């Protein structure tokens, strides 16, 4: 008799997942589920927009200043409150996959890779970008 403990889904394979985060033990929706792309983009728009406003106010808009402000705010707010301003507005938080305190190195790695853009655009099955995978973090709904 075949072992059915690996997959109880009809016709399913053991490596299939039904929603992002299932293989990480996260719920399909609601609190502690993987943040979906629309929320992420909304948070990014807020964070970048605030960085542009600060850049215009203090540097008469400089692209490098804007990127620096964006990176600094990402690092500071993820370290202090587990999420950027935009992420908190959209009720998301960045947490270490292993649990515990996020520390300082995870926000640094995550922010540097996020500023390179490409790592954030490459996702795995759990909708975690390479920047999250490298930092060992996951962006969850609150």
**Total beta-strand segments:** 2
Question: How many separate helices?
Answer: 6
The fraction of residues assigned to DSSP E strands is 5-15%
N-to-C order of helices and strands: HHHEHHHE
Quickly count the domains: 1
Please state how the strands of the largest beta sheet are arranged side by side: 1-2
**What composes the largest sheet?**
2 strands, antiparallel
Which secondary-structure class do the elements indicate? Answer: mainly alpha
Low-confidence stretches: 1-7
Describe the structure.
It is a single chain. The protein is mainly alpha-helical and 142 residues long. The protein has one domain. A two-stranded antiparallel ribbon has the order 1-2.
Write the layout of secondary structure elements.
Elements: H1 37-59, H2 63-81, H3 85-89, E1 92-96, H4 105-115, H5 118-121, H6 130-135, E2 137-141
Helix pairs in contact: 1-2, 2-4
Question: How is this structure best summarized?
Answer:
The protein is mainly alpha-helical and 142 residues long. It has 6 helices and 2 strands, in the order αααβαααβ. A two-stranded antiparallel ribbon has the order 1-2.
Key features?
single chain; 142 residues; mainly alpha; 2 strands; disordered N terminus
């Amino acid at each position: 008799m075949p072992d059915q403990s690996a997959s109880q889904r009809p016709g399913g394979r053991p490596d299939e997942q039904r929603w992002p985060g299932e293989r990480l033990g996260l719920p399909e929706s609601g609190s502690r589920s993987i943040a979906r792309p629309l929320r992420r983009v909304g948070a990014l728009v807020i964070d970048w927009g605030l960085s542009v406003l600060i850049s215009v106010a203090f540097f008469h808009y400089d692209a490098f200043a804007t990127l620096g402000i964006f990176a600094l705010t990402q690092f500071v707010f993820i370290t202090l409150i587990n999420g950027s301003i935009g992420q908190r507005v959209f009720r998301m938080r960045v947490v270490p996959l292993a649990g515990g305190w996020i520390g300082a190195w995870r926000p640094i790695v995550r922010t540097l890779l996020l500023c390179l853009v490409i790592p954030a655009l490459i996702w795995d099955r759990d909708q975690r970008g390479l920047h999250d995978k490298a930092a060992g973090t996951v962006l969850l709904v609150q």
